[in-house]
Amino acid sequence: MSLLKKLTGWTLLSLVLFTNIKTPTLAEFTDVDIEDPHYVAISYLQEQGIISGYEDGSFKPYKKVNRAEALKMLTLASGVISDSTITILENPAAPFTDTPPFAWYTKYLIAAKEKGIINGYEDGTYQPESNVKLIEALKIFLECFNDLEYPDPTEYSFADSSQEDWYAKYVAYSASKDMLTITAQNEILPEQEMTRGELAEIIYRKYRSKEGYGFGKATYYGAAAHGRNTASGETFDKDALTAAHKTLPFGTIVEVTNLANGKSIQVKITDRGPYGPGRVIDLSSGAFKELAPLSQGVMYVQYKVIE
User: Fold this and answer.
1) 3-class SS at 142?
2) pLDDT of residue 151
3) What is the pLDDT of residues 236-256, one digit of tens each?
4) Is the CB of residue 203 less than 8 Å from the CB of residue 196?
5) What is the dihedral angle through the alpha carbons of 82, 83, 85, 91, rounded to the nearest 10 degrees?
6) What is the mean pLDDT of residues 27-46?
7) Could you tell me which of 82, 74, 195 has the C-alpha nearest to residue 144?
8) Same-domain status, 236 and 95
9) Which domain holds residue 15?
């Protein structure tokens, strides 16, 4: 059974939702445990054979990734390059002025450069040992795909980026697929240096977005709203398995999964909201506590319409 296989057997009887909570099998990395923020992403990608770890059995999710490592990880994950199809030249030319012809990463640089995925800096360097930034990782990864339709960058506005930036189209596409982690201040931190766990999250969200999954922050509302009318006209019950979403039709059944532990629950949309940056769904307190302690307040989730 796949890690995030859709839950089955739910029924809706007399407007009462019955559901099961599922916790997936622990990732087979010695240093990736449940409650790691990228637990689901890393576990899924490992199960699918998309990523691998180190010889000692670890993944090192918090290790910063340099530009050479990121190139290998992202191009192999996209499938545009594979170890079995890369041609190893007997006397390869250095692809950039600062990359030796026989480094472990040279074959990946040559293959990616030939495909137009990378072109280096204006001075002819690639700076393979520099830590990769978010915007650089997005460019590398998205340039691996030839069939992407980039949305209008003006449709997406963030406090720390502009539609005039060279990377605007990559940010816009990533935002449209919920691949970005957006702060409460509506920032994406484009210059942040990426870790292996964060790169795994980007890869995972790109893969799963094709299957109809959305991603973002989930919060909850409870006792203060208990007994009040919701936007659908139903009376809010803090203990019922319900949620608020900005656009989904009332009555829609949505499966919500905590990305830090893989627990899933199905809820019914009865209200409108949330509206804060990066927030995608507001759960009843009864639903939220099935996935995480209420004291946590907010969690990163994936969600998908079931019916």
Assistant:
1) helix
2) 97
3) 999 999 999 999 999 999 999
4) no
5) 130
6) 92
7) 74
8) no
9) 11-23+213-305
